Amino acid sequence: MSEAGTNRLRASLVPMACLVAVAVMLSPVRPFPLLAVPFALFLVALRPRDLFGLATAVVLLALVFRVGPSDADSGWFMQRGWCLLAGGLFVALTILRRPSGLFDRGLGTVTVAMAGISLAVMLQPALGTALDGWMELQIREAATTAYAILAADPQAASGSLGESVRAAIETWAVFQHDVYPALLALATMAALAACWYFAGRHGEDYENPPPVREFGFRDELVWLLVAGLMLLVLPLGGGAFRIGENATLFMVALYLARGGAILAWIAAVAATSAWTWVFLVVGAVLAYPIVFGAALVIGIGDTWLHLRERLATRLVDRSGR
Questions:
Q1: What is the tens place of the pLDDT at every residue in 76-88?
Q2: Could you tell me the residue ranges of all domains in the chain?
Q3: Statement: the pTM of the whole predicted model exceeds 0.85
């Protein structure tokens, strides 16, 4: 790797690590196929003359699509089918250059993919039942693993803390089953962005991923949050409520990220030393409910206030005096 390529990779490590972490933590399916399949497709699409890249793509696809004795079930096909669909749609939107922004291409990918799956479920209701059943099985397996980890410590498992943790695990399992489409969409967008940045880092038109503190998206998406909240409030039935629940969670997560980016931007301006960063991080961890609430309010409010632009303008005006 050239020195320029090394500098590019070094500058993009933190944003890519954050994207991978989001994909791993939020994905209701196994994260390896979600990361490996789009990455392999990007290598083939972006670097068709790179033999090492093509060989890497072949190895990744072979690892993902190898079939073991207990793997060839409907869930195996559903998971890999989603990864292929998302990666293929993203490549197609990239080739068409519509839309041009990375976030918009990721959002367009999950929107088209979800719309296609919803149409298929409407035409074949048994497909939706099978998908829900398989996802519930995956969530229950994860909850069982969490219970087993808790049971490894008899003292913690037998006390009031153990009961609280078990109740939290059960509540999270039920909630995750209802909102797994939103979690899958968020994890897919993060995985696509991480794979795009990493696979295209040697391209001539490559741009380093922007710092985390610059994260943002179209202001018009606030209407998706409004629509989700309306579906939650209006008595339109269980299907409409679930759609509203997923749309609301999806947008709340995005606005939390946007508000967190704004807080990080303000912290970067205010921090004058490494010790200042330490105090800010420790304070954020200790007061995380307040920080989360503030990030959500700031993220939504930034739709109209555009805080970073206003603060940057004031800083420039002060420095010019």
A1: 788 888 999 999 9
A2: 1-210, 213-220+249-321
A3: yes
